[in-house]
Amino acid sequence: MRNTKRAIAASILLATAAVVPAAADEVSDFYKGKSVNIVVGHEPATGFDVYARVLARHLGRHIPGNPNIVVQNMTGASGITAANWLYNVAPKDGTVMATFVHTVPFEPLMGNSAARFDPAKFVWIGNMEESVAVCGISKGAGIAKFEDMLKKETVWGATGATGPLVKSAAAVKNLLGAKMKIVAGYKGSASVKIAITRNEVNGICGLPMSTIQSAWGDLYKSGEFRPVLQLSGRKQPELKGIPHVDDYAKSDSDRQTFGLIFGLQALGRIYLSPPGTPDTRRDALRTALLATMKDPKFIADAEKAKIDISPMTGEEVEQFIARLSSAPTAIIERVKKATRPD
Questions:
Q1: N or C: which end of the chain has fewer CB within 10 A?
Q2: CA–CA distance from 130 to each of 117, 258, 309 (Å)?
Q3: Which pLDDT score, from 0 to 100, does residue 1 have?
Q4: Both 186 and 84 in a single domain?
Q5: Residue where a domain terminates, one of 206, 240, 264
Q6: Mind listing the pLDDT tens digit for each residue in 18-30?
Q7: pLDDT exceeds 60 at position 6
Q8: What end-to-end distance do the CA atoms of the chain give, in Å?
Q9: In the chain, what percentage of residues exceed pLDDT 70?
Q10: Are 41 and 185 a contacting pair, CB within 8 Å?
Q11: Secondary structure of the chain as H, E, C letters
Q12: Which residue among 235, 264, 293 closes a domain?
């Protein structure tokens, strides 16, 4: 009997060993000579665009078959247009990945009928950065610290009503009592930056520090633009003396609400593929993304572009979204109310 069990076990090991190379060969054969498109749900020159283009220069080396990587921008509804396309239209064969703001996967939970997808069915590839977001304001606004915003009205630029720039600013206004006028409708953070330099608006909320240090580096280093409130992540040494939104939480309800509004920023640079993507290609893309994050050439390129890298696996992203999506109804309703700009 013992010899029979050993024989069966040996057969299983041999079969497994034979399947793995076969799967790898299938993936390599599929991707060889093809292109993988990375669809960015935001305008060029935004942080999402910068991250995607740095990734695209290196990802192909780590996918079996070494496909060409092409970045395309698909703007609209603060990333929801790209998410709808990915879910309902995009090829489900492993040749498409997308990236957009962290609020998008939770739009169905918030009752947004324009979000025509089920986030649980997306294939989550991974996350390039657990972002630290802030509210930042121009030097000319006359605001020395966040507490000044409780007394003096300032004007804040934002994108569409479903975007994190609107929702973050609205939550700071509605939950913390800041006197803020929110001007929505800008295409992206790059457009808001231009508006700030023209004195059309004073500031922006929900912008990652990685974007400030890269695409906004000129304004940041000169002191013309500076953070006044940290919205997510652990307190950063670079932001010493600047309050964290969690400092204003007075109850468990506050903490849960802040987590479902600001804590989502941990999904700073998520990447995903359509439902139905074959498991072998999903696994290859997940492995390739993590391998790229450790690639010395990629790391050097990321440092040159001044972008932060703190990756999460596809499984971790999937679990994170599932956990926050199970928030109590009362908290979800409070979040909905708090993130309305008017």
A1: N
A2: 24, 16, 8
A3: 40
A4: no
A5: 264
A6: 444 556 689 999 9
A7: no
A8: 74
A9: 93
A10: no
A11: CHHHHHHHHHHHHHHHHHHHHHHHHHHHHHHCCCEEEEEECCCCCCHHHHHHHHHHCCHHHHCCCCCEEEEEECCCHHHHHHHHHHHHCCCCCCCEEEECCCCHHHCCCCCCCCCCCCHHHCEEEEECECCCEEEEEEHHHCCCCHHHHHCCCEEEECCCCCCHHHHHHHHHHHHHCCCEEEECCCCCHHHHHHHHHCCCCCEEEEEEHHHHHHCCHHHHHHCCEEEEEECCCCCCHHHCCCCEHHHHCCCHHHHHHHHHHCHHHHCCCEEEECCCCCHHHHHHHHHHHHHHHCCHHHHHHHHHHCCCCECEEHHHHHHHHHHHCCCCHHHHHHHHHHCCCC
A12: 264
Beta bridge partners of 156: 182, 203
Beta strand pairing call for 225-230 and 133-138: antiparallel
What integer pLDDT is reported at residue 3 of this predicted model?
Answer: 41
Query: Quick check: 7 pLDDT over 50?
Result: no
Q: How far is CA 230 from CA 152, 161, 181, 197, in A?
A: 19, 21, 19, 22
- At 160 the pLDDT is 83
Give the domain CATH number at 322: 3.40.190.150
Same domain, 139 and 256: yes
Best CA proximity match to 128, nearest among 289, 305, 296: 289
- Is residue 342 included in any domain, yes or no? no
Choose the weakest-confidence range: 3-17, 139-153, 170-184: 3-17
Does 270 lie in the same domain as 258? Answer: no
Question: Which residue, 253, 248, 261, 138, is CA-closest to 201?
Answer: 138
At a CB cut-off of 8 Å and minimum separation 6, what does 72 contact? 37, 38, 39, 40
- The Cα 322–Cα 138 span in angstroms is 37
